[in-house]
């Protein structure tokens, strides 16, 4: 995390007339070259100019996560690790009407959503992050529902009736994001002990982390949350806030699939691609519920260990991207390239599973600039590699279960 001196410089930019004027000028500039920096430094110190640039860049990037980003106080790593507003509001609904401890609050992404539903005490060891959370609480008009304290979360006292949300640091002073929970801070020992110390709560983990290894057998609910088709986080719900064992949730449609919705021990057949092929939402796969969903909807896998599903009829669900099969080809790049040119395909959507082929590189190689939109589904696997030329079907009404 950045040092408090950076927070002091940013606070000057945000709270003084010269600082706000500087920030406004920086925010209206598309590039920050030597000429611009030299001009700004005539009226402000290099530290204040750097702070204004950080704030302007943060607000620009923050618009992808927050609806009021143009007024918020961001820090680069804090913004990257902050929960997207849509996801945070989804989680906050379970805390409605409670008093919540939000541990490792960072810039306050989860704090702001929690405060719309509950009274919140936000805790972080970094004084700069505490200042940012207070500021952002005012931006979202929830400052009267948020108390912010600076403390090491491992050292504070927990009441047995408390509800807790924790977003552990996944970098811990390193530029590289930790995938193993052993690299999180607070550490795995604290995270695993937390359910026994409070009434209930949630632990935010990375969706690509080894959460199943450490929490898969615990008496808790593992929820995988996707937003717009990208898996955003694995949430461990425990105690009074757990509702099932596994849950896959897709936002913004607000639909979910749990271990209670499908067969307990699903047997999903393997079949060559039929009339329709489906690319399932990644939350289904990461939650371990893909076979349950497939079996309940009469679908088969296209190949062992490959998360493309297939069936004879189209199925409408936010959890499935649906493709009509036009042709099945060997996974031979030269053959496919000739087909792309001959059929005048373009734009060309490319999806891959079980292979290290990169869609961007393939598009650059094939140059699909024709007038006929298409999709290529490329799947690897020993003895099962193939390419499917397909047409994407427009989504219709959801058949998935709405979140209660």
Short key terms for the protein model shown above:
404 residues; alpha/beta; ten-stranded mixed β-sheet; 17 strands
Helix-strand layout with pairing:
Layout: H1 4-15, H2 17-27, H3 34-40, H4 46-62, H5 76-81, H6 85-92, E1 99-103, H7 109-115, E2 119-124, H8 127-139, E3 146-150, E4 163-166, H9 188-193, E5 200-205, H10 211-215, E6 220-227, E7 230-239, E8 246-251, E9 255-258, E10 276-280, H11 282-287, H12 290-296, E11 300-303, E12 306-311, E13 320-329, H13 333-342, E14 345-353, H14 359-366, E15 372-379, E16 386-392, E17 401-402
3D structure, described in words:
The chain has 404 residues and is α/β, with parallel strands linked by helices. Helix 1 packs across helix 2. Strand 14 (345-353), helix 14 (359-366) and strand 15 (372-379) form a beta-alpha-beta unit. Strands 3-2-1-4-5-7-6-8-9-17 form a ten-stranded mixed β-sheet. It contains 14 helices and 17 strands.
Mean pLDDT: 94
CATH topology of the largest domain: Rossmann fold
Poorly predicted runs: 397-404
Question: What is the second-level CATH architecture of the largest domain?
Answer: 3-Layer(aba) Sandwich
CATH C-level class of the largest domain? Alpha Beta
DSSP, total strands: 17
Total of domains: 3
Structural class: alpha/beta
Distance between the termini: 38 Å
Major sheet attributes:
10 strands, mixed
Query: What is the helix fraction of residues, given as a range?
Result: 25-40%
Helical run tally:
14
Proportion of residues in β-strands: 25-35%
CATH superfamily descriptor of the largest domain: Vaccinia Virus protein VP39
Radius of gyration: 24 Å
Order the strands across the largest sheet as they lie in space: 3-2-1-4-5-7-6-8-9-17
Q: Using the alpha-carbon principal axes, give the shape.
A: flat
